[in-house]
Amino acid sequence: MKLFLRHAIPGIIFFTGQMLILYAVLWLYDLYRPAAFFYIVLLNSIGLLIYLSYRFFSMLPLLRRMQQPVQSVAEPIRSDSEEPISVAVEQFLERQQTLFRNSLFAERRKEKERHRYVDQWIHQMKTPLSVIELILEHPGEHYQADLRQEVDRLRSGLDQMLYSSRLEAIETDLKAEQLSLKPLITGIINQEKRLFVKNQVFPKLDIAEDMYVYTDAKWFRFLVLQLVTNAIKYTTGHGREVVLKAEEINGQVVLSIRDDGVGIPRRDVPRVFNAFFTGENGRRYGESTGMGLYFVQQVSMKLGHEIELESEEGIGTTCRIRLVGGRAHD
């Protein structure tokens, strides 16, 4: 009742104002008659009372529903009221509830994915730590390379975890600028040179000195590093190559990373960018979280780059990143 009275107060004030204005007009024009004015006020008051009663009883189901405590987000809102404003409010609340549920479920799904990724990551980090412990039990010069390799694995895993935690707030961490492409890619290759040597894979760079792109250096480095690491991982063997090539096509710079490794089975290609998808190669080679290419796609979308992947089993894989850029002399 109190809620309805607060709703009806503006109408009651408006009615009272009308009666006062009518009284003033009748008095100014010397038409005021107490009995006649009383009947006018009485009839209008009865009409107002009938109208407010109708509004109250038509809105009563909604008013009762709104004053009841909410037990669950899945609780239905319908109050079986046919009053237009009640129906409109109920429909609005249902749309809002649906949006909230979808948002809540999406957040829960993301949280589950994060927990799953953290569990897998922790499991993977146990392996290099165990190897390091064994090496430290038998120190010697010939163990330094193995120790360095395990440290690199730890560094790579920690970097991936760090970037994954920043991914949702990437917009606050972006700094787009014009970058010379060749030094950027050369730095990534030098960073992973031990991984190239260990897997007997050779990098081949085909990028013009004056080629430039517009992107964020830190996130673009992470993106390319993931692709290069994947290419090395699945291209183990003497004489194999990972080719990094940049071309200017239709006003864009297309950076391709091509390997002649095991390739990806045709049935797995459409799903390689899905979270936690490891596919046949991931199960065969092990230690795959299925999140590397997922992060690559997410970062590419945030940076405004297009990414595509082609692969043929037994032939190799090519990833292409389309960026804004060109040649310095253009």
From TrEMBL:
* Record carries keyword Transmembrane helix: yes
Q: Which GO terms describe its molecular function?
A: ATP binding; phosphoprotein phosphatase activity; phosphorelay sensor kinase activity
Keyword Transmembrane helix applies: yes
**Catalytic activity annotated for this protein?**
ATP + protein L-histidine = ADP + protein N-phospho-L-histidine
> What subcellular locations does the record give?
Cell membrane
Q: Which UniProt keywords apply?
A: ATP-binding, Cell membrane, Kinase, Membrane, Nucleotide-binding, Phosphoprotein, Transferase, Transmembrane, Transmembrane helix, Two-component regulatory system
The annotated topology with respect to the bilayer is: Multi-pass membrane protein
Q: What is its EC number?
A: 2.7.13.3
InterPro entries recorded for this chain? BphY/WalK/GraS-like, HATPase_C_sf, HATPase_dom, His_kinase_dom, HisK_dim/P_dom, HisK_dim/P_sf, Sig_transdc_His_kin-like_C
Per the record, GO CC terms?
Answer: plasma membrane
Membrane-spanning ranges: 12-29, 35-57
Q: Where is the Histidine kinase domain?
A: 120-327
Instruction: Give the Pfam families listed for this entry.
Output: HATPase_c
GO annotation (BP), single: cellular response to phosphate starvation
Q: What protein does this entry describe?
A: histidine kinase
The species is Exiguobacterium indicum
